DNA sequence: GTAGGGTTAG
């Protein structure tokens, strides 16, 4: 029987059969979201002139809630002459489904005041509201009440409880609920998998999945999506691929959430071919999540160009980008310091009104900072109404990268004053800031108080920061003592910091120890070899330099080639050492030569001592003058409008000679030059650098 | 007789 043909009934009072038929129609309208027809039927019922029975009103309340017309549902409920427990439950569910969680809870309380006993339906709806609000304490009370009423182990209530505890970060209680259940199903298992994942225990999530498979529980697309997401987070490519084969076997390849989870998993394990295969499989369905997962993969692979192309493609298809999309793209621009693209994306963020999103605004602070535009970064931060921890961390890290340790410390104070709790990342940035600014005591004080005062347990990276802090300031003995007393061995970053400090301060004995440790930890890392050869070269120990080079050859260690890049004319121009590939190479080298003359006239003396080659001075000078950052600066000088600050990015640290040379360049061409190397920013102007030569 | 649970990109 077709729904629309059922709308005839007696004009006086509805018979039982008629009521049942009408209820059936309303239910169908609710399911198919046919609000207009449902409203017509409702008016028809009113014209009979008789009050509607509770049973039909409950149906109408449910229908209006499902069709997102909560006001109608509330009006009906308020006017009801005889509510029963189903009416109350329908309202609680209605509020909960329409994201009106506080009302859902209030209605649950009112239901108890009205002395109606809540059943499993009411409990599951109100617990869901608790999950969304993160009200774990209220949820705990509901749990007690549910147990008292005999519904604590009911399957739906149990699933909601497990979900609530895990989403509120109390996975232990979720496990207790799970273990006490008489029956389980795939929904409850999914809540557990997702619970472990949301609490950061991705291995735990995979174990739950394995246990589920062993127990023969149905695997559906919810289970697969959640488990794939855990694989991605773990970068577990083998497990991910195994799950992919399960997806194929069970025929879930075209299920959008599974497809997206697969795309994301492949992106996270840096297998873009795999990600594209899934993304392009069967073409549809695709949505913004699919596109953003792909974009994020490209960004992580440092392929910002492909990320931007993917963005253009989704816009051409008429798909609306969201805050996730912009966050990923802007992060890509920040990593590559692609300012022009970053600014264009910022404009779009404003147009789409995502500028108030905490993730987007924080990444914008970071982007401007990483592009060297400190003032713009601060301006974006100041425009944020209630900065979250992400925004504060971004700002602190921006100050740190610019060597502004005092500002970083002040920002931490402001953050605390505003009631935002610092986390582990805050302290990494803060300690880095102190280190680059030579604020040794301040850095140490914060390191020793971070656990006591703020409850943040120092991790490997914090210890590395302290090694850097002490080493950079020349306190090599203290750094060595600190390393000895650490609860664990320093990681590669820690030894690298120590080695770098030994190089700056010319401590070859300690340097050799650090280099050895670093080579053991990361034999493929060329950094240790290069730093050590710099130390040897400084002492003119050419035999040692030769041996080291042989060692590198034998171990197949390739020196990471240095390159610099600059944004000009909406394009990123990349230059390597002695780069001859650019179409304007002739002009660039003419510019370099004329610069060298001007610099020497102004007093520049090349510092060739750290070049690990036994060649004559003039050759060394020439080599230095062909370092990629100088080529990039020369190119920027001939191609960018006068007055526009020159921002050059480099993948390695700027060498001491380039640092001195760029100071002279800034003076002789009277131009602000900003250089971002792999550890911090240098703002050169009028012959001076913002780092004050402490770096 | 009506009302309820778990997925995918920070």
TrEMBL record:
Any one GO biological process: RNA modification
Domain of life: Eukaryota
Positions of the DYW domain: 603-695
InterPro entries: DYW_dom, E2_motif, E_motif, PPR_At4g14850-like_plant, PPR_rpt, TPR-like_helical_dom_sf
Gene3D superfamilies: Tetratricopeptide repeat domain (1.25.40.10)
A single MF term (Gene Ontology): RNA binding
Keyword annotations of the record: Repeat
PPR repeat boundaries on the chain: 53-87, 185-219, 287-321, 388-422
Pfam family, one: PPR_2
Family, per entry: Belongs to the PPR family. PCMP-H subfamily.
NCBIfam families linked to this entry: PPR
Official protein name in the record: DYW domain-containing protein
């Amino acid at each position: 029987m077709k729904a629309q043909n059922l709308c005839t009934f007696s004009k006086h009072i509805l018979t039982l059969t008629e009521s049942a038929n009408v209820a059936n129609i309303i239910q169908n309208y609710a399911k198919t979201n046919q609000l207009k027809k449902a409203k017509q039927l409702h008016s028809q019922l009113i014209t009979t002139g008789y009050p509607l029975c509770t049973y039909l009103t409950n149906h109408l309340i449910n229908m209006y809630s499902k069709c997102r017309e909560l006001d109608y549902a509330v009006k009906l409920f308020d006017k009801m002459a005889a509510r029963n427990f189903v009416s109350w439950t329908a309202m609680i569910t209605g509020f909960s489904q329409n994201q009106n969680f506080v009302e859902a809870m209030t209605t649950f309380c009112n239901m108890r005041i009205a002395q109606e006993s809540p059943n499993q339906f009411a409990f599951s709806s109100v617990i869901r509201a608790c999950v969304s609000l993160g009200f774990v304490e209220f949820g705990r009370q509901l749990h007690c009440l549910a147990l008292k009423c005999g519904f604590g182990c009911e399957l739906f209530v149990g699933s909601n409880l497990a979900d609530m505890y895990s989403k509120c970060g109390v996975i232990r209680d979720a496990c207790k609920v799970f273990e006490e259940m008489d029956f389980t199903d795939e929904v409850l298992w999914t809540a557990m998998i997702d619970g472990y994942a949301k609490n950061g225990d991705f291995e735990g999530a995979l174990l739950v999945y394995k246990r589920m498979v062993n127990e023969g529980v149905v695997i559906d697309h919810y289970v697969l999506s959640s488990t794939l997401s855990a694989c991605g987070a773990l970068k577990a490519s083998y497990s991910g691929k195994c799950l992919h084969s399960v997806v194929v076997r069970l025929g879930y390849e075209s299920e959008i959430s599974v497809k997206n989870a697969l795309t994301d998993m492949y992106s996270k394990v840096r297998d873009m071919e795999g990600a594209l295969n899934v993304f392009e499989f069967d073409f549809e369905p695709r949505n913004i999540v699919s596109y953003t997962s792909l974009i994020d993969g490209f960004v992580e692979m440092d392929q910002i160009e492909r990320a931007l192309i993917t963005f253009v493609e989704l816009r051409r298809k008429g798909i609306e980008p969201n805050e996730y999309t912009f966050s990923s793209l802007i992060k890509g621009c920040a990593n590559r310091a692609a300012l022009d693209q970053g600014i264009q994306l910022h404009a779009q963020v404003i147009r789409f009104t995502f500028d108030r999103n905490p993730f987007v605004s924080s990444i914008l602070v970071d982007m401007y900072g990483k592009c060297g535009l400190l003032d713009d970064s601060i301006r974006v931060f100041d425009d944020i109404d209630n900065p979250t921890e992400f925004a504060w961390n971004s700002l602190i890290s921006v100050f740190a990268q610019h060597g502004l340790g005092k500002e970083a410390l002040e920002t931490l104070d402001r953050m605390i004053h505003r009631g935002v709790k610092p986390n582990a990342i805050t302290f990494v940035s803060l300690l880095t800031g102190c280190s680059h600014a030579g604020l040794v005591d301040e850095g140490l004080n914060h390191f020793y108080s971070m656990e006591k005062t703020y409850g943040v347990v120092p991790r490997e990276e914090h210890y590395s920061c302290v090694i850097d802090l002490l080493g950079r300031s020349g306190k090599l003995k203290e750094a060595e003592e600190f390393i000895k007393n650490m609860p664990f061995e320093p990681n590669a970053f820690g030894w690298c910091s120590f080695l770098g400090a030994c190089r700056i301060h010319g401590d070859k004995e300690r340097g050799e120890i650090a280099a050895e440790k670093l080579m053991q930890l990361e034999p493929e890392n060329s950094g240790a070899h290069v730093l050590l050869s710099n130390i040897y070269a400084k002492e003119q120990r050419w035999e040692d330099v030769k041996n080291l080079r042989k060692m590198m050859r034998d171990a197949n260690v390739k020196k990471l080639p240095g390159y610099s890049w600059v944004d000009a004319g909406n394009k990123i121009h990349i230059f390597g050492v002695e780069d001859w590939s650019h179409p304007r190479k002739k002009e660039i080298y003419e510019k370099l030569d004329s610069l060298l003359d001007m610099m020497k006239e102004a007093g520049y003396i090349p510092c060739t001592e750290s070049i690990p080659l036994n060649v004559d001075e003039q050759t060394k000078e020439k080599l230095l003058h062909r370092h990629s950052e100088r080529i990039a600066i020369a190119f920027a000088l001939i191609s960018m409008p006068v007055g526009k600050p020159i921002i050059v990015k480099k993948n390695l640290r700027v060498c001491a000679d380039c640092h001195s040379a760029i100071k002279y360049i800034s003076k002789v061409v009277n131009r602000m030059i900003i250089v971002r190397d792999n550890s911090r920013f240098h703002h050169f102007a009028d012959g001076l650098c913002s780092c004050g030569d402490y770096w």
